[in-house]
Hints:
mainly alpha, rod-shaped, 47% helix
Amino acid sequence: MSAHRALQKGFTLIELIVVVTIIGILAGIAVSNVKNAQNKAREAALKDDLHEMRKAIDNYYADKQRYPQSLAELKESHYLRDIPKDPFTGKAEWEEVSAAVDPSDPNGGSAIDPTATAANEEQGGQPGIYDVHSNAPGRAMNGEELKTW
């Protein structure tokens, strides 16, 4: 009878079930890691886009002593090649934060309260965009709201 068993080849049903279960667990882990990697990549792209646009705003201000009126003005003035698309919304629409300019500043361009644009326009200040935020809803993986970035 031992000679007959030696001639049989193959796997038992238990061995196959164990192998399929292990493969299923590994596949589940891989899928969740891929989903997290995609979100991390979108967040990294968003941070980079915001950094570049803020840097362009700062460079514009350093050159012209005033803030740009819009992101389109940054593009027209060649401070940005193109207005990037938000990686979460897929649109090139950003929340532009207005700057109020202190009219008493001898240089005529230091930003004061960015929320008080209407009051400073009446006092002769020049509003422009001081900062930019994402319009994406929801939260980042670290729990912060994406709009606050």
